Automatic annotation (TrEMBL):
Keywords: Signal. This is Lipoprotein. Gene3D superfamilies: Tetratricopeptide repeat domain. InterPro entries: TPR-like_helical_dom_sf. It comes from the Bacteria. Residues 1-18 form the signal peptide.
């Protein structure tokens, strides 16, 4: 009887582990499609992630992958916009991180301080100074509004 009960418990635990590992987020699906080279199919998943992120870095990664897709498509303005949004979110995540000795924080800091700014500087001449300023204003307003909505809803 005890052996039978133990076997049943093990089967239930194995099934639970399989079920937990089988759930994919929209970001997981979009990233997989991106890796397969299907940026068009990945876009709705990135947009879903940005609209309803699981965590702050999900937003940054979705923007980053959208930027990579735009860059591959030759759309410098869209690439700039999404890289800029990724930079803002990554820098925010680094600034509020309490894990100062964490390798993820160091990597995010490298993206915030060097990698994304270098990429933006490379794209800026193709976008044009006026368009760059308009993109920055647009992204800053969108992200500010988004965070203000989040804080307003948390205060209720």
């Amino acid at each position: 009887m005890k052996k039978m009960l133990m076997v049943c418990v093990m089967i239930v635990m194995a099934a639970a582990l399989v079920a937990c590992g089988g759930q994919k987020t929209p970001l997981d699906v979009g990233a997989a499609l991106y890796k397969q080279g299907d940026c068009a199919a990945a876009q709705p998943y990135f947009d879903e992630t940005i609209a309803h992120p699981g965590e702050t870095m999900d937003i940054a990664y979705a923007y980053f992958l959208k930027a990579k897709c735009a860059e591959k498509a030759g759309d410098a303005a869209a690439a700039y916009e999404n890289y800029y949004a990724a930079k803002i979110v990554v820098c925010y995540a680094v600034s509020v991180s309490t894990e100062h000795e964490n390798l993820n924080t160091y990597a995010r800091s490298e993206y915030c301080e060097r990698i994304l700014p270098d990429t933006l500087n490379t794209l800026a001449p193709d976008v044009g100074e006026a368009k760059v300023e308009a993109i920055k204003a647009k992204v800053n307003a969108e992200l500010h509004d988004r965070y203000m909505q989040q804080f307003a809803s948390e205060a209720k």
